[in-house]
Amino acid sequence: MLFRSELRRNLVDCGYVFHSDSDTEVLLNAWAEWGAACLPRLEGMFSFVVYDSFQQCVTAVRDGFGIKPLFYELNEGRFIFASEQAALLALKCEKARPNLQRSYDYLVHGDYDSNEQTFFAGINHLLPGHMLTLYTDRSEVGSVTRWWEPSLIQSSRLTFSQAAEALREQFLTNLRLHLRSDVAIGAALSGGIDSSAVVCGMRYIEPDLPINTFSYIAEGSAVSEEYWVDKVNAYVGAKAHKITATGEQLMDDLDAMIRVQGEPFGSTSIYAQYRVFQLAKASGVTVTLDGQGADELLAGYSGYPGHRLMSHLEDKKYLQMHQFARNWSKWPGRSYSRALMYLAKELLPDNAFRTARKFLGRDFAPDWLNADMLASSGIHLNEQRAVFSPDFKGRRVIEQLGKSLQSRGLQELLRHGDRNSMKFSVESRVPFLTVPMANLLLSVDESYLISATGETKSVFREAMLGIVTDEILSRSDKIGCATPVQSWPVGMAPVIREWLEGSE
Fold first, then answer.
1. Which of 480, 419, 437, 481 is CA-nearest to residue 178?
2. The whole model's pTM is what?
3. Which pick of 1, 11, 130, 301 has the fewest CB atoms within 10 Å?
């Protein structure tokens, strides 16, 4: 909890006496004083379960972004919970069964960690910003309610420059809070704008702070970010720690990493992150700052072009729509036709969308899938598509960002980071993910995030002038923690074939 000191002072003023310096005692007294009303006062990452013996009430809570996990099963009056599925499965004392719907969603659509269901039948996530309440003296099952969700209304009237200034101040405030630590602190540095801003912001706030950075380097690969990592480290005078990896090392660590993650994941970049946290631990750094969440708050990645075009279309700004698609297409890895494909993905009716997917070789029931078996088991062989609210016409990028923060998108990334960091007892902090930051960014005009020229994170780039080196701020590509994903499986093919044959 970032505001532990402030909360503690408030509670002392209310008459509470503390016997330790722990977060737990602050949290327990805050709950005793304010109940669930204390939740908006908690800033940072948390998940917890509290039992009120007077009310005979159990309440489970997860932070607004789902940075920390909480799994549970509620079945026939029995409530069991844990921070890891393995512990929960041990408590269940029965053989784990797969959730076939989630398995299908993952294998065919790459969709996971996007709703309350896990890959294990009967085991759920408590969703971000939610709490589960049940009474031990009643027969009724518990209720799950949302205690926080992002506001998507354009409530801000700030100009672009005013929004940049407000964002600059909020980001620096976030960093100051996340730099509170009694132990050595470092940063995961990929070389992109987000992690670079964290490192450069650390130096801006603390001119004399020893900064250790930890980076994965895809040595000899086109996706290597070493040039940018070196630029940032030189700019702030950080001590650089670098790690590389090979396909052979991945094979050696794969079983351990799968056990750590607990559920399937989407790419080998998770292994690069695994090695980064391993390096931090070996270097004696047990608290790191990470740029996770910036893309979902600032319209990163490719800039959500389909949603931006949809906003223009709904506002009947047809010329601006064409101009945006043309300008967006000039950036690396983009094209005008691709922009229109993104738009079509959002607008096509379900049947047309399904046909288009099949034409592109992404059938909902590919040949390798036993579709008949799944269908007979009640599995829905389709993709969960976005439902757009009439309340947010002209703000489709903002609407999508709000959804990404608590459903498909950010949740899988936070799961990867939490499991990998906890494997090596490293506390990974994410300074972008605070409620005030989200409230600010989701209240502005969406053109501040993805500009008319197709520039992503536009207002953040402006906000970081003078803090982050101009060369980083003007980057037009996004690589992140990418790995040589094409070459690794080729080299591993014989071993992978043995694994598959042995699993029959």
1. 437
2. 0.91
3. 301
CA distance 465 to 203: 14
Helices (H), 206-317: 226-236, 247-261, 269-282, 294-298, 305-314
Q: Which residues pair with 450 in a beta bridge?
A: none
Distance CA 66, CA 84 (A): 14
Residues facing 241 on adjacent strands = 214
Edge-to-edge strands, sheet with 185-188: 239-243, 212-216, 185-188, 287-289, 427-429
Binned at pLDDT 50, 70 and 90, residue 75 comes out as: confident
Closest by alpha carbon to 426, among 230, 214, 240?
Answer: 214
The partner residues of 271 in beta bridges, in order of sequence, read none
Cα–Cα distances (Å) from 337 to 145, 362, 455, in that order, read 42, 19, 18
For position 479, what pLDDT does the model report?
A: 61
> What stretch of H or E contains 59?
strand 57-62
Pair type for strands 287-289 and 185-188: parallel
Contacting residues for 70 by C-beta, under 8 A, at least 6 apart: 47, 49, 60, 61, 62, 81, 83, 125, 126
Cβ atoms of 176 and 287 within 8 Å: the answer is no
As a whole number of angstroms, the distance between CA 245 and CA 274 comes to 10
Mean pLDDT score, 391-416: 94
Q: Tell me if residue 122 falls in helix, strand or coil.
A: coil
Give the C-alpha separation, 154 to 447, whole Å. 12
Length of the chain: 504
CA 76 to chain centre: 33
| Token representation of residue 24 | 């737990």
> In what order do the strands lie in the sheet containing 71-75?
78-82, 71-75, 124-125
Structural tokens at position 145: 């309610």
What is the C-alpha to C-alpha distance for residues 92 and 497, in angstroms, rounded to an integer? 34
Retrieve residue 386's tokens. Answer: 């976005």
Q: How many CB atoms lie within 10 A of CB 169?
A: 12
Give dist(CA 301, CA 483) in Å, integer: 17
Does an H or E element contain 201, and which?
helix 193-205
Structure tokens at 137: 């003296």
Whether the predicted pLDDT of 401 surpasses 70:
yes
Q: Which H/E stretch holds residue 52?
A: strand 47-52
Residues whose CB falls within 8 Å of the CB of residue 260, separated by 6 or more in sequence, listed in order: 274, 419, 420, 422, 423
Output Rg (C-alpha) for the chain, integer angstroms.
Answer: 23
Encoded tokens for 125: 């996530």
